[in-house]
Amino acid sequence: MSFTPDIRLFSCHYTSQQSCADAGKELQGLDFPENIKMTRVPCTGKLEIITLLNAFEDGADGVYVVGCPTDGCHNIKGSERAAKRVQAVRDALAELDVEPDRARMYHLPRGLHPEFVQAGKEMNEQISKMGAGPF
Amino acid sequence: MIIAERKPLAEILEMVQDCKKILVLACRGCVTVCSAGGEREAEILASLIRLGLKKAGKEAEVVDDSLVRQCDREYIDTIDRFKGKYDAIVSTACGVGVNFIANLRPDENVFPALNTTFLGGSAEQGVWSEQCAGCGDCVLHLTGGLCPVARCAKSLMNGPCGGSVDGRCEIHSEVDCVWQMIYDRMGRLNRQDELNKPAPIRDWSTAGHGGPRTQIREELTV
Question: Residues A62-70: what's their mean pLDDT?
């Protein structure tokens, strides 16, 4: 039986800037998985641990964050902060005996680069292999 | 302030495994400042308890709220607004808060979400270090304001042990030897001579070895 995971993406406004191009159709045209629900935030440093946990409570099988490269964050340390919060979620998942890789952090260049689409595909593939989340 | 850290989730989940309605209760005092048990941490813990119980196939209603402090009777009394909404309180206060709830609500379950660790300060963002042992007989006036009881691994009172090397503690090599710090500081203050005076044998009866301590301020007991 095929399984389509529910994946939530929280992305930096700058990193995913071009995802809105052509009313989002550009992203679709690049084969970005349709089952990934994206929430754009002004800065990933604004994301709280609870936001990511709430996504799991809401039924997500996987959650990932895409922020700026650590040495190129528009808000200096925003993506670094996000990475630490994602790590805190990964640690909590491990404590609950759940695969930590259900939560991941990506640092990607700004704009819509192939890496952005690639990260989505990678996440989709990984979570599909893991199967439905335990929550 | 009082420093604390969250207990392992497995331990907390075991405490509440049979509960159907759980109140995760934050304290807006010390544990908020040290990011262990404030409103934010209680919200996170409530979410983790929900996820943990769900994974275990258990149904429970988990809500979170906070008190101004959990170490004062008048604030504990405000728990009554949650009456009927929980069958257990998971307190994210220090051990004092958990005790206070247990003292004042003798028929209600209260569980500790934190391990209370020490009295300390914020060395830098996200880092706390022990500064005071609460021993009840302060010697800081003799040691330039640096505490050998809390900050020397052996709580020595008359200078460093033989293991102090290059200003570092022999027990914890990443920790500065507090006696080296005291010696250097007293030198800067032109008070090094004071260190030649042997410290008297300490009376540790004030340090909690004689059972729980109580303090009464008559002018405040109206």
Answer: 96
